[in-house]
Amino acid sequence: MESDCLFCKIASGEINTQFLMETDDLVAFKDINPLAPVHVLFVPKRHIRSVNDLTEDDGPVLSKLIFAAKEMARQMGISATGYRLFFNVEKGGGQEVFHLHMHMIGGWE
Ligand code: AMP
What we know:
CATH superfamily: HIT-like
Number of strands: 5
Bound molecules: adenosine monophosphate
CATH class: Alpha Beta
Number of helices: 2
Helix content: 10-25%
Number of domains: 1
Strand content: 15-25%
Strand order of the largest sheet: 1-2-3-5-4
Order of helices and strands: HEEEHEE
Distance between the termini: 39 Å
CATH topology: HIT family, subunit A
């Protein structure tokens, strides 16, 4: 855990946040500033700064993020209408919180 990392504090429960999903490896919660009717963030509990910092050993946690999003889409009823999964990478890629997270947006009519 990084002491001044917002998503470490959220994932550890230090900042109270309503989780839509929690497993041993990740948490999912609503984005505070949604870009779509559904906007969920999937965040590994272990601190990884960005996609640039991923190693081969992180393959399992990445796959868990994607399978969690697939399950969340099913639960939210947006599997059939579709959704977008993406990572912003570093400042030039639009990343503002430097703890790896995957966005899921969808729910459009
Ligand atoms: P990124 O630009 O990829 O780093 O995305 C960071 C996202 O975190 C943005 O979409 C923010 O709206 C969102 N965000 C920032 N603080 C919070 C918070 N306390 N709870 C939920 N989402 C947050």
